[in-house]
Amino acid sequence: MGTMKTAEITFLAILAAFAASLAIGSLDLKYADEFSFGPGFVPLNVGVLIVICCALQALRSLAKSRKEAAEAGDRQEHADTSPNIAGLLITTAIIVLGVAAMALGSVLAPIFAMIFLLSWRVAHHPITSSLFVGATTTAAIYVIFAIWLNLPVL
Amino acid sequence: MLDSLSHLMVAFNQVATPENLLLIFVAGLIGTLVGALPGLGPSAGIALMMPLTFGMSPISGLSLLTGVYMGTMYGGRLTAILINTPGDAPAIVTAMEGYPMMQRGKGGQALGISAIASFVGGIFGLLMLIFFAPIIAEYAIFLGPPEYFMLMLLGLSMIIVLAGSDPLKALIATLVGVLLSTIGSDYVSGNVRFAVVPELIEGVDFVAVIIGLFGIGEVLVNVEERIRLNMGKPKFKFSEFIPGLAELRHISLPTLRGSVIGTGIGVLPGAGATIATFIAYITEKKLSKQPENFGKGASEGLASPEAANNAAVPGSLIPLLTLGIPGSGGTAIMLGALIMFGLNPGPMLMIQSADIVWGTIAGLTIANLFLLGSNILLIPVFVNALRLIQNHLNAIVVAFCLVGAFSINYGTFDVWVTVVFGVIGYLMKRANYPTGPFILALVLAPLAENYLRQSIMLGQGSWGIFVQKPLTMTFTILVLGVVLFGLAKAPIASYVNKRRNQAA
Asked: Where is the chain membrane-spanning (chain A) (predicted)?
């Protein structure tokens, strides 16, 4: 429940910041003219509406979690069902670093590295199995995208 | 009617090339596997396959996507019956009757019955699509911008009210989709909105968004929740998959009822296959002479929802192909695909691009035939493939998502967009926000905004244009009705519950 609340508050904060920035940006755009509305009409109104809805939902979520925390009392989460936060962070880091490495010019090399690392460090498969999966998946991607579809993916 | 059939026959001739047939067959297999994997649903299946269609002709590309879509509907039942783990939401009801049949040693029969019911449902829905879509399209050309805007608003408001239990969360998801769609060129005024980098002049790429949301997002949730399938090693004889004549007679009417319910519900925006399966199940339980058998492996309770599930796919394509209005996340992605192929979704689609629309319908019909065969003959292959893929699923999905995102414009910008929306998708899942309304709004909002502006211009600045004509007024009243229902739903439910508790 804690992860869910954190996720929701983070999500709402991101959305509110995004909506507020676009709403402020839309002030430079024309809102309306004589016969219709301008390009600023939709982003400004929708942006403001999102900020209001996010604030409302955040208050609802906090009130709900407080009520649930009081009711939960002595309930304890089982160790086996606890969220795999470490796995989640490692996966995100591998993806971000892999995509950043694509800037060096190759797509398939970082893809191979990502598959290998995700299989080895997150799914905890043996290193040989991870290398095999990395190589076969990369080869399959090369065959499908580069050879069959003729897309410049190397 | 004869016109529809002649169009379809021509389309079959076009589609039935060896390459296309192989493509549709493989699409069905991939869809079945994706549908069977918990965490990956129809939207994820279509999103993952979208980059593969970049170099294809529209007929081949759309056949691939609809084949995957249909395949996911067949696939969800596999893990639901075998290990009581529904592959997608519509398969929840399948597990309620299918798994008890499996426990009683009738797993093979459950798989056979569900495959046949799925096939009948799919074909029934397709027949409705083939015969009714041209009729609706004929009338749709008389609709103007105000009617279109109101229809889109009706679709969006229905999905907000019907998607999930929390309309505020659905509203937030919808509004974010609308706001995101405003980034890029505004074709009415010529202004460029919020394009902080040149790559955003054409807007945020829809394919990159859906790959992130449904691919990377699902992977992150799967990793966090440690989702794993324990497929075991079920052994079946081929004869077990084919139900006897008595059993077929027993499930014939429930299958037909499920097909009608599925097609009808599939047409409605926001309702979709999951609601159709529950309604079909409840209907069968009410009509059954032995309702006490439900939950213990009643074959009619398995057949009817499975038929409804598959009939909902062609049902949902009726408003998409005739009006250009999708009713679910899956069909919203299909609308994105139509736009990607340079088609103009709307009432003129069936006139201007008749060959492509009928080609897609022909592809879907062939896919349904292939899926019936593969879902009876290839069960052991699916079980082994699932066992193999499941162990390495996350790594494989991430790889295909990122390469797919790179293929959009051969640059890393769209890959970063995919990663960002992967995180957004993860947060939406964790916080229980529906993704369907977001995707629907992202696709529909630019069209809706244009129709709204054109309407206001037609009304010379007056909003009264939305109540001037009887048809526009009807749509406006329907939208208001849906909004009022959405607002009143929670207080009414809470009042009814309170009264019930007091009475108890």
From this structure: 41-59, 85-118, 130-151
Contact flag B453-A149 (C-beta cutoff 8 Å) = no
**Residue A124 in this model has a pLDDT that exceeds 60:** yes
Encode pLDDT of A90-117 as tens digits.
999 999 999 999 999 899 999 999 999 9
B182 to chain A, closest Cα gap in Å: 7
Neighbour tally for A88: CB within 10 Å: 20
C-alpha dihedral sign at B476, B480, B481, B483: positive
Is the pLDDT at A136 greater than 90? The verdict is yes
Nearest CA in chain B to A112: B399
B250-306 pLDDT, tens per residue? 999 999 999 999 999 988 876 678 888 999 999 998 998 888 888 888 999 999 999
Nearest Cβ partner for A107 among B406, B433, B461: B406
Spell out which residues of chain B touch residue A123, defining contact as CB-CB under 8 Å: 391-392, 394-395
B229 contact A CB<8A: no
Q: Do A141 and A108 fall into the same domain?
A: yes
Q: Is the ipTM of this complex over 0.90?
A: yes
Do A110 and A54 share a domain, yes or no?
no
Are B194 and A122 in contact (CB < 8 Å)?
A: no
Domain count, chain A: 2
Left (φ > 0), alpha (ψ -120 to 50) or beta: where does A105 sit? left
Nearest-angstrom CA–CA distance, A15 and A47: 9
**Candidate from A88, A134, A141 with C-beta closest to B223:** A88
User: A38 contacts in B (CB within 8 Å)?
Assistant: 189
Q: Chain B residue closest to A142 (CA)? A: B403
Do residue A102 and residue B391 have CB atoms under 8 angstroms apart?
A: no
Same domain, A106 and A142: yes
**B14 alpha-carbon distance from chain centroid:** 26
Domain co-membership, A111 together with A47? no
The pLDDT, as a whole number, for residue B398 is 95
Query: pLDDT digit string (tens) for B346-369?
Result: 778 888 888 899 999 999 999 999
Residues A92 and A52 occupy one common structural domain: no
Structure tokens at B325: 């209005």
A95 & A50 share domain: no
Is the same domain home to A90 and A45? Answer: no
Cα(B275)–Cα(B19) distance, integer angstroms: 36
